[in-house]
Amino acid sequence: MRVLITLLIFISLIGCVSAPYRDDHTAHINTISEQYDASDLRFVLVDGPAIDIRGVYSADNTTVSSSIMYQGVGGIAGLLAQIGTHASLINSQRNTKLADAQMRANEEISSLISLAPEIDLRKLVKEAGYKLEGHNHTEVSSTLVNIKPIFFASKAMDKISLNMITWVGGNGGAEGSKPQYQNLVQVFSQNLSDQQK
Questions:
Q1: Is the residue at 92 inside a domain?
Q2: Does a structural domain hold residue 158?
Q3: Would residue 45 count as lying in a domain?
């Protein structure tokens, strides 16, 4: 019985570990064994041609853990409920901390963000020679590469970086629809001169 109780507590503690949601990062997945011909690839901007630009923020989501003391009245069920509640509160604090950091970073580059609607992503990738489909493209194809580019600018607006989430197959993380391939591509610029800014 003690082993069973210890096992239940251990499983509960493992289940309480979570990471805050960030749409600018993803886990690498690759279940495709064959290679694709690069000339056959087509790209889809899943969020349309508008540029998503954000301020660089600290990804430190640590919070001061509040102490929790088990109240033995509820037994094992009470213990599990208290652990779950504590984990939910900590996760909420972590999400709030990241959201606040992103909002402050965006305020620092608000002048650049206000220029973003004037820029069309299709024009930026036109020189690459790839076929770029509209975001409402509905054809399912294994050679269709979904892309979600997110640009980041430093506080001084002298460095630009790109986090581009790419996936093949699936429906972009929709439930029950796992992609065959998913990855994060990061590109960092050199320091921009005053003229380039």
A1: yes
A2: yes
A3: yes
